[in-house]
């Protein structure tokens, strides 16, 4: 995999340098702004919050613009590690020195929709590649809300990108090559619900930024839209309508539960980056908007992208453990994983994976325990996970401080065998690399 990263960096370097020579300028977004009811806020918001606050939640602005480990909301500072350096999210509070307090409407719209900030062109870690589809009014409503926040004087740390990636002007050519600079245009052949769902998933929720694999230039592969990808050491799973690898076989109730509460009975519970999306964004969407998202996701063409997050969850293949007859891991030759699970995990998850203390502890049908590579499983065991939804906190502690790399590999492979009837491929070396994820 190292050669692929090196090749990708080399290609992107050529793009950046060529951009400075060939395309230093400003791209022109195309198409009229979408209008309500596709854009804007749904009728059933009923004054629960301001239009701008609702749209900011739908766009999940706070998740990226808040530093982890106690950062003040929207004050920036969250680090994003890239193959060629680290960039930091900016301060969106109305502080006049370090935030957006002195920004004009036009400047804010240009940053959100066109990727042009106060210091030059933005990097696509800021999903302007999706926000470009938004209406100007939606962007300005978000700005209006942000200006009501308490100003926080907090300078954004300097990016640490290597040359030539630290030359922002080069992004002009990247945009020219990879950016589809079009406003969202409703499809007259589709229903109002479908169009609203497409706008929510694309322009606002930017689902494809995480769930779509990227090409060698680090742009999303449009032909593999929502086919699954790896992000921050986790898997953003396939969310196309594919029956075996995607959401095609999920019921409407399961999809609704996962989007609005982070749990789909008999399927999965949200963890890691997806838990953040549910916590900060999706749980606040109205019932009509959740329904619109379900309608849209049902229609996304089935896709699979080998090596990018697909896990076969065809019910016909899900054997796993039952309350009466545990899966084959109970008789595994290596008992280390079984002993660890027995001592630290069975109390919450139960031997049959039912998770009787809370539905979020259920492991049945989970992506994590049916993925032989065990990426998400390793992350959860190492770091734990937390989800605040509906006024309650769902929490699993991390065991990275007390388990060795070999122990985490052992318990991961046991869980994969016991609950997914999968031959786990987790190694101590894989766990060691996961510990080093920023």
From TrEMBL:
Record-listed heme c 2 binding positions: 207, 210-211
Gene3D superfamilies to which the protein is assigned, alphabetical: Cytochrome c-like domain
Domain Cytochrome c: 47-150, 192-301, 332-419
Binding sites annotated in the UniProt record for heme c 3: 345, 348-349
Keyword tags: Cell membrane, Heme, Iron, Membrane, Metal-binding, Repeat, Signal
SUPFAM superfamilies: Cytochrome c
Localization per record: Cell membrane
Origin superkingdom: Bacteria
Primary site of residence: membrane
Sample GO molecular function, one term: iron ion binding
GO cellular component: plasma membrane
UniProt key word Cell cycle: no
Protein's name in the database: Mono/diheme cytochrome c family protein
């Amino acid at each position: 995999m190292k050669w692929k990263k090196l090749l990708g960096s080399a290609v992107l370097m050529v793009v950046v340098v060529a951009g400075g020579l060939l395309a230093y300028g400003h791209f022109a977004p195309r198409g009229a702004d979408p209008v309500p009811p596709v854009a804007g806020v749904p009728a059933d918001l009923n004054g629960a919050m301001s239009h701008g606050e609702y749209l900011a939640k739908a766009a999940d602005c706070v998740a990226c613009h808040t530093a982890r480990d106690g950062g003040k909301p929207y004050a920036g500072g969250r680090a994003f590690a890239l193959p060629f350096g680290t960039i930091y999210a900016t301060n969106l509070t109305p502080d006049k020195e370090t935030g957006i307090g002195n920004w004009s409407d036009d400047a804010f719209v240009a940053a959100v929709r066109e990727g042009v900030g106060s210091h030059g062109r933005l990097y696509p870690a800021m999903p302007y590649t999706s926000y470009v589809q938004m209406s100007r009014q939606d962007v300005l409503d978000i700005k209006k809300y942000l200006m009501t926040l308490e100003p926080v004087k907090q300078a954004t740390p300097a990016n640490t990108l290597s040359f030539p990636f630290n030359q922002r002007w080069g992004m002009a050519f990247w945009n020219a090559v990879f950016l589809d600079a079009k406003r969202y245009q409703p499809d007259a052949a589709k229903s109002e619900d479908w169009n609203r769902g497409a706008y929510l998933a694309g322009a606002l929720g930017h689902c494809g930024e995480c769930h779509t694999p990227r090409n060698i230039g680090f742009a999303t592969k449009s032909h593999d839209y929502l086919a699954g990808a790896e992000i921050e050491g986790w898997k953003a799973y396939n969310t196309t309508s594919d029956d075996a690898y995607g959401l095609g076989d999920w019921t409407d109730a399961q999809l609704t539960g996962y989007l609005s509460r982070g749990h789909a009975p008999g399927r999965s519970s949200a963890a890691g980056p997806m838990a953040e999306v549910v916590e900060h964004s999706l749980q606040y969407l109205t019932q009509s908007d959740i329904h619109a998202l379900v309608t849209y996701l049902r229609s996304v063409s089935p896709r699979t992208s080998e090596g990018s997050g697909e896990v076969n969850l065809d019910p016909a293949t899900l054997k796993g453990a039952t309350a009466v007859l545990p899966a084959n891991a109970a008789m595994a030759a290596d008992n280390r994983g079984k002993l660890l699970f027995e001592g630290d995990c069975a109390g919450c998850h139960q031997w049959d994976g039912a998770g009787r203390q809370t539905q979020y502890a259920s492991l049945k049908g989970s992506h994590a325990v049916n993925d032989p590579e065990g990426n998400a499983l390793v992350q959860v065991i190492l770091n734990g996970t937390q989800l605040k939804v509906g006024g309650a906190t769902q929490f699993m502690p991390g065991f990275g401080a007390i388990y060795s790399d070999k122990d985490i590999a052992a318990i991961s492979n046991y869980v994969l065998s016991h609950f997914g009837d999968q031959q786990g491929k987790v190694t101590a070396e894989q766990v060691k690399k996961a510990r080093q994820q920023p």
